[in-house]
Amino acid sequence: MELLLATRNQHKIHEIRTLIEPISKLQLVGLEDVGLNYEEREEELEPYDTFEENALSKAKYFHELSGMPVIADDSGLVVDCLNGAPGVKSKRFSPFSAGDGNSRDEANNKHLIHCLSNFPDTEWNARYVCVATFVSESRDPTVSRGEVKGKIITPGRGTEGFGYDPYFLANDSNFTFGEMSEDEKNLLSHRGRAFKVLFQVISHVV
């Protein structure tokens, strides 16, 4: 069965497809694959204060557009000493993302380290969070949450992954997410944990 993956983030699409292939026969298709081209209103699909609400908002929106079963997620970095920021605003954390010569990831990471400079690095505890959800016509939404705890380090290390990965050092690991191979990260990551549970559940009902 085909499932529509409700994201336009190519890094995330690749990561989720890599997660599902070893454990499920479900086939993921992208938004463009079914003719759903980008529209500006998609920028308003994550207005909520929780990962759960934002993930459900995206999944329901694209389910209504396509009529297909949909999986979606909302993910982010939660830093304790910043009162949970960037949190659900992780993708657009930096006020300097546009027009400063940096990519969005670079701008977000720069802003994160700037904010943390007000605190000793012993307080830079953080966790990555992912909430994955499945929406279809035939059943109530299924929601799965994955977390991995760690801390922020500077300077960043590694060029793998995306987002805050080079600056996130998971507990009990000597490597940042930016230094890990794809397989190593998938075994440990918040997204890996959330989607593995989600796929195991929905594989029995679709």
SSE blueprint:
Blueprint: E1 2-5, H1 10-20, E2 27-29, H2 51-66, E3 70-79, H3 104-116, E4 125-135, E5 142-152, E6 168-170, H4 182-188, H5 190-202
Parallel strand pairs: 1-2, 1-3
Antiparallel strand pairs: 3-4, 4-5, 5-6
Helix pairs in contact: 4-5
Q: What do you see in this structure?
A:
With 206 residues, the chain is α/β, with parallel strands linked by helices. The protein has a single domain, classed as Alpha-Beta Complex (Maf protein), CATH 3.90.950.10. It has five helices and six strands. It has helices at residues 10-20, 51-66, 104-116, 182-188, 190-202; strands spanning 2-5, 27-29, 70-79, 125-135, 142-152, 168-170. The chain has a six-stranded mixed β-sheet. Strand 1 (2-5), helix 1 (10-20) and strand 2 (27-29) form a beta-alpha-beta unit. Helix 4 (182-188) crosses helix 5 (190-202). The longest helix is centred in the first third of the chain and has 16 residues, at 51-66. The termini are close together.
CATH fold title: Maf protein
Distance between the termini: 7 Å
Mean pLDDT: 92
Strand order of the largest sheet: 2-1-3-4-5-6
User: Helix and strand succession?
Assistant: EHEHEHEEEHH
Using the CA coordinates, give the radius of gyration: 17 Å
Query: Biggest sheet: strands, sense, closure?
Result: 6 strands, mixed
**Gross morphology:** globular
How many beta-strand runs? 6
Q: Given the structure, what is the number of helices? A: 5
Class inferred from helices and paired strands: alpha/beta
- Report the uncertain regions: none
Q: What is the correct CATH architecture?
A: Alpha-Beta Complex
Q: Report the β-strand fraction as a percent range.
A: 15-25%
Number of domains: 1
CATH class bucket: Alpha Beta
Percent in helix: 25-40%
